[in-house]
Amino acid sequence: MKKELVSEVIWLRCLACLTVVAIHCINMTFTNYEGVLSNLSVTFLEVVKLALLFGTPTFVFISEFLLAKAYPTQIPDKFLWKRVRYILIPYITMAVVYAFYSLTRSGELTATALIVKSLRNIVVADYIAYFIIVIFQFYVLHIIFTKYFQKASPKLMITLCLVVNLIYLGFFNFVPPLNFVPSAEYIWTRLYWVPFPGWLFYFSVAYYCGRNHAAFKEFLNRNMKWLIYSPIVTFLVILFLRFGELLPEANSKRVDILFYTISMIFVIFYLTSKIKHIPWIIDLVSRYSFGIYLLHLIFVQNFSEIFDGLNPWINIPLTFVLSISISILLTFVLHKLRIGSYFVGKIGAKFSTKTKNIQNENWVEKEVKV
Q1: In the structure, what pLDDT confidence band is assigned to residue 4 with cuts at 50, 70 and 90?
Q2: φ, ψ for residue 102 (rounded to 5)?
Q3: Coil/strand/helix, residue 280
Q4: Alpha-carbon 70 to chain mean position
Q5: CA 339 remoteness from chain centre
Q6: DSSP of 150-162
Q7: Which residues contact 21 (CB under 8 A, 6 or more apart)?
Q8: Helix 255-273 with 230-243: angle, nearest 10 deg
Q9: What is the pLDDT of residues 168-191, one digit of tens each?
Protein backbone atom coordinates (compact mmCIF):
# COMPACT_ATOMS: atom_id res chain seq x y z
CA MET A 1 0.00 0.00 0.00
CA LYS A 2 1.62 3.27 -1.12
CA LYS A 3 1.37 6.11 1.33
CA GLU A 4 1.82 9.72 0.34
CA LEU A 5 4.52 11.44 2.34
CA VAL A 6 3.29 14.04 4.81
CA SER A 7 6.34 16.24 5.17
CA GLU A 8 4.71 18.27 7.96
CA VAL A 9 4.90 15.18 10.16
CA ILE A 10 8.69 15.12 9.85
CA TRP A 11 8.79 18.65 11.24
CA LEU A 12 6.27 17.84 13.97
CA ARG A 13 8.11 14.71 15.05
CA CYS A 14 11.46 16.49 15.13
CA LEU A 15 10.15 19.48 17.08
CA ALA A 16 8.25 17.26 19.55
CA CYS A 17 11.37 15.19 20.14
CA LEU A 18 13.52 18.27 20.74
CA THR A 19 11.02 19.75 23.20
CA VAL A 20 11.03 16.57 25.30
CA VAL A 21 14.84 16.62 25.56
CA ALA A 22 14.84 20.36 26.32
CA ILE A 23 12.30 19.93 29.13
CA HIS A 24 14.46 17.28 30.80
CA CYS A 25 17.50 19.55 30.46
CA ILE A 26 15.59 22.31 32.22
CA ASN A 27 14.40 19.92 34.94
CA MET A 28 17.98 18.82 35.63
CA THR A 29 19.05 22.47 35.77
CA PHE A 30 16.42 23.13 38.44
CA THR A 31 17.86 20.18 40.41
CA ASN A 32 21.57 20.83 39.96
CA TYR A 33 21.44 24.62 40.33
CA GLU A 34 18.91 24.84 43.13
CA GLY A 35 19.75 27.86 45.26
CA VAL A 36 22.10 29.18 42.58
CA LEU A 37 19.65 30.34 39.95
CA SER A 38 18.16 33.78 40.49
CA ASN A 39 14.41 34.13 40.82
CA LEU A 40 14.31 35.76 37.40
CA SER A 41 16.21 32.82 35.86
CA VAL A 42 13.91 30.29 37.51
CA THR A 43 10.84 32.13 36.23
CA PHE A 44 12.28 32.40 32.72
CA LEU A 45 13.11 28.68 32.58
CA GLU A 46 9.67 27.85 33.95
CA VAL A 47 8.02 29.89 31.19
CA VAL A 48 10.18 28.20 28.55
CA LYS A 49 9.31 24.79 29.97
CA LEU A 50 5.60 25.60 29.90
CA ALA A 51 5.92 26.69 26.27
CA LEU A 52 7.52 23.33 25.39
CA LEU A 53 4.89 21.13 27.02
CA PHE A 54 3.06 20.60 23.74
CA GLY A 55 5.80 18.15 22.68
CA THR A 56 4.72 14.96 24.44
CA PRO A 57 1.02 15.02 23.44
CA THR A 58 2.05 15.92 19.89
CA PHE A 59 3.30 12.34 19.56
CA VAL A 60 -0.25 11.07 20.13
CA PHE A 61 -1.45 13.30 17.31
CA ILE A 62 1.34 12.17 14.96
CA SER A 63 0.74 8.50 15.69
CA GLU A 64 -3.00 8.55 15.10
CA PHE A 65 -2.90 11.02 12.24
CA LEU A 66 -0.68 8.70 10.22
CA LEU A 67 -2.64 5.59 11.13
CA ALA A 68 -5.95 7.20 10.20
CA LYS A 69 -4.50 8.48 6.94
CA ALA A 70 -3.01 5.08 6.03
CA TYR A 71 -5.92 2.90 7.21
CA PRO A 72 -9.09 5.02 7.15
CA THR A 73 -11.56 2.18 6.51
CA GLN A 74 -9.95 -1.15 7.39
CA ILE A 75 -7.29 -2.68 9.61
CA PRO A 76 -4.57 -4.81 7.97
CA ASP A 77 -3.60 -8.29 9.14
CA LYS A 78 -1.19 -8.55 12.07
CA PHE A 79 -1.72 -4.85 12.78
CA LEU A 80 -0.92 -5.13 16.50
CA TRP A 81 1.70 -7.86 16.29
CA LYS A 82 3.96 -5.86 14.00
CA ARG A 83 3.86 -3.04 16.52
CA VAL A 84 4.62 -5.36 19.40
CA ARG A 85 7.84 -6.44 17.73
CA TYR A 86 9.49 -3.04 17.30
CA ILE A 87 7.68 -0.95 19.90
CA LEU A 88 6.55 -3.06 22.84
CA ILE A 89 9.65 -5.26 22.97
CA PRO A 90 11.97 -2.21 23.17
CA TYR A 91 9.67 -0.89 25.90
CA ILE A 92 10.26 -4.08 27.92
CA THR A 93 13.98 -4.22 27.14
CA MET A 94 14.59 -0.60 28.11
CA ALA A 95 12.50 -1.07 31.25
CA VAL A 96 15.22 -3.44 32.46
CA VAL A 97 17.99 -1.10 31.25
CA TYR A 98 16.50 1.85 33.12
CA ALA A 99 15.94 -0.26 36.22
CA PHE A 100 19.61 -1.23 36.20
CA TYR A 101 20.65 2.36 35.51
CA SER A 102 18.54 3.96 38.25
CA LEU A 103 19.54 1.39 40.87
CA THR A 104 23.20 1.81 39.97
CA ARG A 105 22.92 5.59 40.34
CA SER A 106 21.27 5.24 43.73
CA GLY A 107 23.70 2.56 44.92
CA GLU A 108 20.84 0.14 45.62
CA LEU A 109 21.56 -2.44 42.93
CA THR A 110 20.77 -6.01 43.97
CA ALA A 111 19.27 -8.90 42.03
CA THR A 112 16.00 -8.60 43.93
CA ALA A 113 15.83 -4.83 43.56
CA LEU A 114 16.51 -5.15 39.82
CA ILE A 115 13.67 -7.63 39.35
CA VAL A 116 11.23 -5.53 41.38
CA LYS A 117 12.17 -2.29 39.65
CA SER A 118 12.06 -3.90 36.20
CA LEU A 119 8.61 -5.32 36.84
CA ARG A 120 7.41 -1.98 38.16
CA ASN A 121 8.72 -0.25 35.03
CA ILE A 122 6.99 -2.78 32.78
CA VAL A 123 3.69 -3.28 34.59
CA VAL A 124 2.87 0.28 35.68
CA ALA A 125 5.07 2.09 33.14
CA ASP A 126 7.15 3.66 35.89
CA TYR A 127 9.90 5.08 33.68
CA ILE A 128 10.41 7.48 30.81
CA ALA A 129 8.99 5.12 28.16
CA TYR A 130 5.52 5.13 29.78
CA PHE A 131 4.32 6.92 26.68
CA ILE A 132 4.69 3.76 24.60
CA ILE A 133 1.87 2.22 26.65
CA VAL A 134 -0.21 5.33 25.97
CA ILE A 135 0.41 4.94 22.24
CA PHE A 136 -0.38 1.23 22.32
CA GLN A 137 -3.78 1.93 23.87
CA PHE A 138 -4.53 4.14 20.89
CA TYR A 139 -3.62 1.38 18.46
CA VAL A 140 -6.45 -0.59 20.03
CA LEU A 141 -8.72 2.46 20.04
CA HIS A 142 -7.95 3.05 16.37
CA ILE A 143 -9.26 -0.44 15.62
CA ILE A 144 -12.42 0.31 17.61
CA PHE A 145 -12.99 3.66 15.89
CA THR A 146 -12.41 2.15 12.46
CA LYS A 147 -14.87 -0.68 13.08
CA TYR A 148 -17.64 1.14 14.91
CA PHE A 149 -17.39 4.92 14.52
CA GLN A 150 -16.57 5.55 10.87
CA LYS A 151 -19.98 7.09 10.20
CA ALA A 152 -20.19 9.03 13.45
CA SER A 153 -20.20 12.81 13.30
CA PRO A 154 -16.63 14.14 13.72
CA LYS A 155 -17.90 17.19 15.63
CA LEU A 156 -19.85 14.99 18.02
CA MET A 157 -17.01 12.51 18.58
CA ILE A 158 -14.36 15.19 19.06
CA THR A 159 -16.62 17.06 21.49
CA LEU A 160 -17.34 13.90 23.49
CA CYS A 161 -13.65 13.02 23.61
CA LEU A 162 -12.80 16.55 24.73
CA VAL A 163 -15.37 16.39 27.55
CA VAL A 164 -14.05 13.02 28.73
CA ASN A 165 -10.47 14.31 28.56
CA LEU A 166 -11.30 17.49 30.47
CA ILE A 167 -13.18 15.63 33.20
CA TYR A 168 -10.40 13.07 33.59
CA LEU A 169 -7.53 15.57 33.77
CA GLY A 170 -9.61 18.07 35.74
CA PHE A 171 -10.23 15.47 38.42
CA PHE A 172 -6.53 14.75 38.92
CA ASN A 173 -5.55 18.42 38.48
CA PHE A 174 -7.95 19.89 41.00
CA VAL A 175 -8.94 17.07 43.39
CA PRO A 176 -6.27 16.18 45.98
CA PRO A 177 -5.31 12.51 46.48
CA LEU A 178 -8.12 10.59 48.16
CA ASN A 179 -6.85 8.93 51.31
CA PHE A 180 -9.12 5.90 51.00
CA VAL A 181 -7.68 5.01 47.56
CA PRO A 182 -4.72 2.58 47.76
CA SER A 183 -1.46 4.19 46.57
CA ALA A 184 -3.35 7.44 46.02
CA GLU A 185 -0.24 9.61 46.19
CA TYR A 186 1.47 7.60 43.44
CA ILE A 187 -1.65 7.56 41.27
CA TRP A 188 -2.09 11.33 41.54
CA THR A 189 1.64 11.97 41.06
CA ARG A 190 2.32 9.76 38.06
CA LEU A 191 0.09 6.77 37.30
CA TYR A 192 -2.86 8.81 36.02
CA TRP A 193 -0.63 9.81 33.08
CA VAL A 194 -0.89 6.34 31.52
CA PRO A 195 -4.63 5.61 30.87
CA PHE A 196 -5.89 6.77 27.48
CA PRO A 197 -8.61 9.20 28.74
CA GLY A 198 -5.81 11.63 29.60
CA TRP A 199 -4.91 11.91 25.90
CA LEU A 200 -8.21 11.17 24.18
CA PHE A 201 -8.80 14.63 22.69
CA TYR A 202 -5.52 14.53 20.73
CA PHE A 203 -6.42 11.09 19.40
CA SER A 204 -9.87 12.12 18.21
CA VAL A 205 -8.65 15.27 16.46
CA ALA A 206 -5.83 13.33 14.79
CA TYR A 207 -8.18 10.53 13.74
CA TYR A 208 -10.46 12.84 11.78
CA CYS A 209 -7.64 15.04 10.48
CA GLY A 210 -5.85 11.94 9.17
CA ARG A 211 -8.98 10.44 7.60
CA ASN A 212 -9.76 13.77 5.93
CA HIS A 213 -6.27 15.07 5.22
CA ALA A 214 -7.25 17.24 2.25
CA ALA A 215 -10.15 18.79 4.18
CA PHE A 216 -7.83 19.35 7.16
CA LYS A 217 -5.33 21.27 5.02
CA GLU A 218 -8.17 23.29 3.50
CA PHE A 219 -9.46 24.09 7.01
CA LEU A 220 -6.02 25.36 8.04
CA ASN A 221 -5.64 27.49 4.92
CA ARG A 222 -9.13 28.94 5.36
CA ASN A 223 -8.87 29.71 9.09
CA MET A 224 -5.21 30.44 9.72
CA LYS A 225 -5.86 34.18 9.97
CA TRP A 226 -7.32 33.61 13.42
CA LEU A 227 -5.74 30.24 14.26
CA ILE A 228 -2.29 31.84 14.13
CA TYR A 229 -3.11 33.70 17.35
CA SER A 230 -4.46 30.67 19.21
CA PRO A 231 -1.09 29.49 20.63
CA ILE A 232 -0.52 32.94 22.13
CA VAL A 233 -3.98 33.14 23.69
CA THR A 234 -3.92 29.59 25.06
CA PHE A 235 -0.38 30.03 26.37
CA LEU A 236 -1.40 33.17 28.25
CA VAL A 237 -4.09 31.07 29.94
CA ILE A 238 -1.42 28.54 30.93
CA LEU A 239 0.75 31.28 32.43
CA PHE A 240 -2.21 32.68 34.35
CA LEU A 241 -3.13 29.30 35.82
CA ARG A 242 0.48 28.39 36.61
CA PHE A 243 1.63 31.62 38.23
CA GLY A 244 -1.76 32.22 39.76
CA GLU A 245 -1.15 28.92 41.59
CA LEU A 246 -4.41 27.46 40.26
CA LEU A 247 -2.44 24.76 38.43
CA PRO A 248 1.07 24.87 39.91
CA GLU A 249 2.30 21.60 38.37
CA ALA A 250 4.20 22.23 35.14
CA ASN A 251 3.57 19.09 33.11
CA SER A 252 1.76 18.09 29.91
CA LYS A 253 -1.13 16.49 31.82
CA ARG A 254 -2.89 19.77 32.56
CA VAL A 255 -6.35 20.66 31.26
CA ASP A 256 -5.08 23.88 29.68
CA ILE A 257 -2.40 22.05 27.69
CA LEU A 258 -5.12 20.38 25.59
CA PHE A 259 -6.02 23.58 23.76
CA TYR A 260 -2.46 24.91 23.60
CA THR A 261 -1.14 21.68 22.07
CA ILE A 262 -3.78 21.47 19.36
CA SER A 263 -3.28 25.13 18.48
CA MET A 264 0.49 24.61 18.26
CA ILE A 265 0.08 21.51 16.10
CA PHE A 266 -2.25 23.31 13.70
CA VAL A 267 0.05 26.33 13.37
CA ILE A 268 3.20 24.21 12.92
CA PHE A 269 1.39 21.98 10.44
CA TYR A 270 0.32 25.00 8.42
CA LEU A 271 3.67 26.83 8.49
CA THR A 272 5.75 23.77 7.63
CA SER A 273 3.41 22.93 4.75
CA LYS A 274 4.76 26.06 3.08
CA ILE A 275 8.38 24.87 3.35
CA LYS A 276 9.39 22.90 0.28
CA HIS A 277 12.77 21.64 1.51
CA ILE A 278 13.34 19.61 4.69
CA PRO A 279 16.80 20.34 6.17
CA TRP A 280 18.91 17.24 6.76
CA ILE A 281 19.13 17.90 10.52
CA ILE A 282 15.33 17.98 10.83
CA ASP A 283 15.07 14.72 8.91
CA LEU A 284 17.86 13.15 10.99
CA VAL A 285 16.24 13.95 14.34
CA SER A 286 12.86 12.76 13.06
CA ARG A 287 14.31 9.46 11.81
CA TYR A 288 16.11 8.79 15.10
CA SER A 289 13.36 10.19 17.35
CA PHE A 290 12.46 6.86 18.95
CA GLY A 291 16.07 6.14 19.90
CA ILE A 292 16.47 9.69 21.20
CA TYR A 293 13.26 9.35 23.20
CA LEU A 294 14.38 6.09 24.82
CA LEU A 295 18.02 6.99 25.51
CA HIS A 296 18.31 10.73 26.05
CA LEU A 297 17.42 10.91 29.75
CA ILE A 298 20.47 8.85 30.72
CA PHE A 299 22.74 11.31 28.93
CA VAL A 300 20.85 14.41 30.09
CA GLN A 301 21.25 13.39 33.73
CA ASN A 302 24.94 12.60 33.41
CA PHE A 303 26.03 15.49 31.18
CA SER A 304 24.09 17.98 33.29
CA GLU A 305 25.93 16.75 36.38
CA ILE A 306 29.31 16.65 34.64
CA PHE A 307 28.92 20.28 33.54
CA ASP A 308 27.36 21.58 36.75
CA GLY A 309 30.47 23.67 37.40
CA LEU A 310 29.68 25.71 34.32
CA ASN A 311 27.27 28.57 34.03
CA PRO A 312 23.74 27.08 33.73
CA TRP A 313 23.20 28.98 30.47
CA ILE A 314 26.14 27.05 29.04
CA ASN A 315 25.17 23.78 30.73
CA ILE A 316 21.69 23.63 29.21
CA PRO A 317 22.57 23.96 25.50
CA LEU A 318 25.70 21.80 25.91
CA THR A 319 23.75 19.03 27.64
CA PHE A 320 20.95 19.36 25.08
CA VAL A 321 23.20 19.02 22.02
CA LEU A 322 25.39 16.25 23.45
CA SER A 323 22.45 14.20 24.72
CA ILE A 324 20.77 14.23 21.33
CA SER A 325 24.02 13.58 19.46
CA ILE A 326 25.09 10.64 21.63
CA SER A 327 21.57 9.18 21.53
CA ILE A 328 21.64 9.26 17.73
CA LEU A 329 25.14 7.78 17.63
CA LEU A 330 24.28 4.97 20.06
CA THR A 331 21.08 4.19 18.16
CA PHE A 332 23.11 3.99 14.95
CA VAL A 333 25.68 1.67 16.55
CA LEU A 334 23.01 -0.57 18.11
CA HIS A 335 21.45 -1.00 14.69
CA LYS A 336 24.67 -2.57 13.51
CA LEU A 337 23.78 -5.44 15.84
CA ARG A 338 21.03 -7.89 14.97
CA ILE A 339 19.32 -7.29 18.29
CA GLY A 340 19.66 -3.50 18.18
CA SER A 341 16.11 -2.87 17.00
CA TYR A 342 14.79 -4.73 20.05
CA PHE A 343 16.38 -2.04 22.22
CA VAL A 344 15.73 1.17 20.30
CA GLY A 345 13.18 0.18 17.67
CA LYS A 346 13.58 1.00 13.99
CA ILE A 347 15.28 3.95 12.33
CA GLY A 348 13.20 5.84 9.80
CA ALA A 349 14.01 5.80 6.11
CA LYS A 350 16.07 8.77 4.97
CA PHE A 351 13.95 11.38 3.24
CA SER A 352 14.65 12.04 -0.41
CA THR A 353 12.69 12.52 -3.60
CA LYS A 354 12.93 8.75 -4.08
CA THR A 355 11.01 8.16 -0.85
CA LYS A 356 8.27 10.62 -1.71
CA ASN A 357 5.62 7.91 -1.76
CA ILE A 358 6.77 6.17 1.42
CA GLN A 359 5.32 7.30 4.74
CA ASN A 360 6.49 6.13 8.14
CA GLU A 361 3.36 5.19 10.00
CA ASN A 362 4.36 6.31 13.43
CA TRP A 363 6.97 8.30 15.29
CA VAL A 364 8.07 5.14 17.07
CA GLU A 365 7.73 2.46 14.42
CA LYS A 366 9.46 4.02 11.46
CA GLU A 367 9.92 1.11 9.03
CA VAL A 368 7.23 -1.27 10.27
CA LYS A 369 5.40 -2.11 7.06
CA VAL A 370 1.98 -3.75 7.05
Answers
A1: low
A2: -70, -40
A3: helix
A4: 21
A5: 25
A6: TTS-HHHHHHHHH
A7: 292, 296, 300, 320, 323, 324
A8: 150
A9: 999 999 999 998 999 999 999 999
